[in-house]
Amino acid sequence: MNNVSPEDDFFDPEVNGDHNYASISEEVEIQQIQDRCVCIFDKTTATYGIIMVMSNSFRCSVCNSSVCSHIRMVNSYKETPFHDLPDELCDIFTDFKTTSNQFLVQKSTLKIPFRRSTTLTHTLLSLHDKIQKITVLQPTSQCRKCSSDSGEYQTVNERCPITASQNIYFVILNMWICHQCHEKNVYEGLDDGLLNMGSYIVTHELLRSYLHGFLHGKCTLFAFYTHLKEVHLDFGLSNFLTYNKLKNAWYCYVSLLDVDYRHGFCCNICGENPRTIICDGTSLSFRKKMLLQPGNIKAQIDDEKLLYGSSFKEMVFVANATTRKMLKRYSKLTSVSSMSNEEFTSMISALEKEIPELANFINDIEDGIHCPPTKYKSLIASLSSSSPVCVLIPNNKGLHDALQKLCDGDDIQCNPDLIRSLQEQSPLLFDIYKGCRPISTCMKELLKILSKKAEQPFVTKENHTVEKTLENPELACFPSLPILRERGMYYSDKTVFKKKEKCKKVFSGHPTLLPGIFTIFCSHGICYGYQVMRNHESANIPFTIFRTRFPTAPDMVIYDFACSLHSYCLRRDPLFFRDTKFFVDRFHWYNHKACSRGYNLNLYLQHNTLNSQVNEQGNAGLKRIKDQLSYMTQQNFMTHCRLFLYNKNINKING
C-alpha cells in the first residue's frame, strides 16, 4: 500500500494544474487516485478536490481546507452503510479511524475455526458442490432470541454474489423475521463455509487462502486481490469483487477467527509467570497519525504520589565522576602505556577520601609501573563504571556465604557448593580467587566493602504498593499477562540525569511511522506479547511491563540495553527487582564499553546453552508482515500483529 503524504508534490498546482486534472474525466464525480486518496468533482463550482484522511478528519489538499465543498460532499456519506458506499470511498472511510468500526457490518457473527480439523476439511471440500446446488441461502425458521417458529422469510438480495477462488455464484439471500419478538435472523453461513457480508458473500476457502499467504509469506492483500482478479479473468469472469469489499471481508473474517490468544501467548514450560525474559524492540509499526490516544507519561506525574527508589550514590561503587574517570583510565593501561606518578598519586589520593579499601588494594597489587595486573583489570574496570555494584555481587545466599568465608580467612576450596556459588553468581571474583589463593588482607577488606555496597540500594527501602487498574491499554497485547497493578510514579521520572558515561542506544526513526513494538520472549522462544512504542525505545517500556504485569519480577532479564534497564529499575523500585539478574545478550555485548563486566552473559558458564537471540530471531520474522501492517489503522495493526505472533507461537509449541 502506498502512503500519500501532504508534503508530496503530486498535487502541486504548478505540476498538475490548479483544479484541473486532465487524466480524470469530468463525467466522473468521484475517482480513487491512490490508496486512501480520492478525487472529487464538485459540479456546482466546477472544481476538483483531493481528499485524504489527516489527523482524525478529512482534508482537501487542493483547497487546503477541511470545510470546503469537496469535504462536504464526502461528509454527506458518513451515515451511509458500508455496503452502499461508492467503491471509491470505501478505502478512506475504512481508514477513517473514528468511524471505521461502524462500516464493518458483516452479518455473520459465529466464530470461524482457525486450526485444522476434520470438520473444517469437510466443509472446504464440499463447499463448491454445495453452492452449485443451492439457489437460496436462508437461516433456520426458528427465532434465536425467543425460539418461536412463527415468522416469515424476507428477501435481502435477489442476486447476491458468492465470490470463491475460481468462480462467482449468484443466489437469493433471505432473512427470517420472527412474528413474536420481531427479531431478524440473518444467514450465518458458518456450516456452509461462507462469510455473509450483507450485500455479498465470500467463501472461507478464499479468505483462508489469503490467511496462509499473510502468515507464511510476504503477500499483501492488494497483491492477493490482483492475483484473484487475474484468475477470475482466466475463467471468463467479469463481475468480480472490488478490492475494498475484499478488504472489508478480510477484516471481518480475522475478527471472527476462533483463537485462544491466552493459550497461544503462553509457554507450556514457563507458564504464566516466566522466570527468564529476553526482550527487545523492533521497527514494525503503523502511522503516528493513526494513534487513537496520543499522550505522554510525564504529563501524568503527581508530586504528592511520587515514590522513591535508590539514589545514584547508593548504587555505584565510586560516586565521584572524576575519580571514576581516572580509575577507568588506570584499568586500561599496560606496561607500555602506564600512568604517570603524578596521575597515580592523584587517583590514590581521591580514592583514599572516598573508598580507602580500594586505594589500599591498588597499592597492594602495584608493582611500580602504575598499571594493574591483567587478572585484576576486569574487576577494576567494573568498579570504575557507573553500573550498580549489585551486578557483581547479586542477592544470593550461597554467594554471600562464600564471600563471608573468604573474608574470615577460610579456604572454600574444599566446599564444592560454595565454590559453585562463587563461580555461577560472580565469575569475575571467582577468576581472581582462582589466581591468588589465599587472598590478601587488602582483598578481604575490598570484598567486605563490596558486599556492603551491593546491599545499599535495598537498605531501608519500602515495598511500593500501587492499586490495581482495570484498564487494558489499547497499545499493548499480553493475553496471558493481564495488568495486576499500576506502574506508579517515581521521583526519578521527573529528574534528568547526565548520561555521558553510560552505554547509549542510537535510533533512526521513520518520519511518519511510530518507532516500533517492544516484544518479550521466554527462553524457549515463545512470545508473551508486545507493546507499541509511542516514542523511541527506552528502559521505561520493559520496566512498566514487568512492574504492572508480573506477580514477581523475573529471575533473569536479557536485553541489549540491560545495563541501563538495571539502573532504571533500581532508581524506582529496587525491592521488586532485588532478585532479578540483568544480562546483555551475547550478540550486543561487544558494543558495551562503559558498563560493568557483570552484565556479560558469556562469563556465566551455567547459561552457555541459553539462546540469548530468541528475541532477535523472533522479531526477524515480523519483517514479513511489515508491508501489510505499516499503513493500517491502530486497531487493525494490533489485530494482525497479534494473529501473526500467535501462529508462530502455536507452531513452536506444537513442534
- Assign the structural class, choosing from mainly alpha, mainly beta, alpha/beta, alpha+beta, or little secondary structure: alpha/beta
Rg to the nearest angstrom?
Answer: 32 Å
The proportion of residues in beta strands is: 5-15%
Major β-sheet, in short? Answer: 6 strands, mixed
- What is the straight-line distance between the termini? 34 Å
Which geometry do the CA atoms define?
A: elongated
Number of strands: 18
What's the overall average pLDDT, rounded?
A: 84
Task: Describe how the helices and strands are arranged.
Layout: H1 13-16, E1 30-34, E2 37-42, E3 47-54, E4 57-60, H2 69-75, H3 87-95, E5 112-113, H4 118-133, E6 136-137, E7 151-163, E8 168-178, E9 184-185, E10 194-196, E11 201-203, H5 204-216, H6 221-234, H7 243-256, E12 257-258, H8 261-264, E13 276-282, H9 312-315, H10 321-332, H11 341-354, H12 356-365, H13 374-383, H14 397-407, H15 416-425, H16 427-435, H17 441-455, E14 476-477, E15 516-522, E16 527-533, H18 540-549, E17 556-559, H19 562-570, E18 581-583, H20 614-621, H21 626-629, H22 634-653
Parallel strand pairs: 5-12, 6-8, 7-11, 13-17, 17-18
Antiparallel strand pairs: 1-2, 2-3, 3-4, 7-8, 8-9, 10-11, 13-15, 14-16, 15-16
Helix pairs in contact: 10-11, 10-13, 11-12, 12-17, 13-16, 14-15, 14-17, 15-16
Give a quick set of tags describing it.
655 residues, six-stranded mixed sheet, 4 domains, 18 strands, disordered N terminus, alpha/beta
Characterise the protein shown here.
With 655 residues, the protein is of the alpha/beta class. 35% of the residues lie in helices and 14% in strands. It folds into 4 domains: 9-103, no CATH class; 112-258, no CATH class; 268-309 and 463-653, no CATH class; 313-458, no CATH class. The protein has helices spanning 13-16, 69-75, 87-95, 118-133, 204-216, 221-234, 243-256, 261-264, 312-315, 321-332, 341-354, 356-365, 374-383, 397-407, 416-425, 427-435, 441-455, 540-549, 562-570, 614-621, 626-629, 634-653, and strands at 30-34, 37-42, 47-54, 57-60, 112-113, 136-137, 151-163, 168-178, 184-185, 194-196, 201-203, 257-258, 276-282, 476-477, 516-522, 527-533, 556-559, 581-583. Strands 6, 7, 8, 9, 10 and 11 form a 6-stranded mixed β-sheet that branches. A 6-stranded mixed β-sheet has the order 14-16-15-13-17-18, with helices on both faces. Strands 1-2-3-4 form a 4-stranded antiparallel β-sheet, with helices on one face. A hairpin with a 4-residue loop joins β15 and β16 (527-533). α14 (397-407) packs antiparallel against α17 (441-455) and α15 (416-425) packs across α16. The relative contact order is 0.10.
